[in-house]
Specification:
- The protein is an all-alpha fold.
- It has 2 domains: 86 residues, Hypothetical Protein Yqey, Chain: A, domain1 (Orthogonal Bundle), CATH 1.10.1510; 51 residues, Arc Repressor Mutant, subunit A (Orthogonal Bundle).
- 77% of the residues lie in helices and 0% in strands.
- Helix 1 packs antiparallel against helix 2 and helix 5 crosses helix 6.
- The longest helix has 24 residues.
- It is globular and about 55 Å long.
- The mean pLDDT is 91.
Length: 150
Amino acid sequence: MSKSAIKDSIQSDQIKYLKEGNKEDSSTLRFALSFINKEEKDKNIVLNDSEVIKVLKSMIKRNKDSYDQFMNASRQELADKEKKEMDLLSTYLPEVLGEVETEELVKKIITELGITSIKEMGKAMGMIKNNHGDTVDMSLVSSFIKKLLS
């Protein structure tokens, strides 16, 4: 059994979809598992949930790039397929904090670390990424830090 509950969930859902005859979703999850397994083999470790989340986020980013290209090329059927895959993979990610919660977290970290200047932005970004990286949108964090320190 793996160290990742998310990976276990993906594996069981992939089998469930296969048994139900849902080939599209089963194929998407099989593809995700192949990326996870490749990452494990490359690093010679068993990924934990946080590392599986990073793999899923990179896959979703790849789908988003394809989705944008298909939309720009007026290829709606291919864009819809990418969107469906993104939506399915996103269900395995933890809930991301909203704007209000993210801003409160940023204010708290800035206060805790005693940061007073934008030059120290890296300290706050590092602390938030290490402790809350799976549950926050880092681009939103960056914009709040810039807003609060400028």
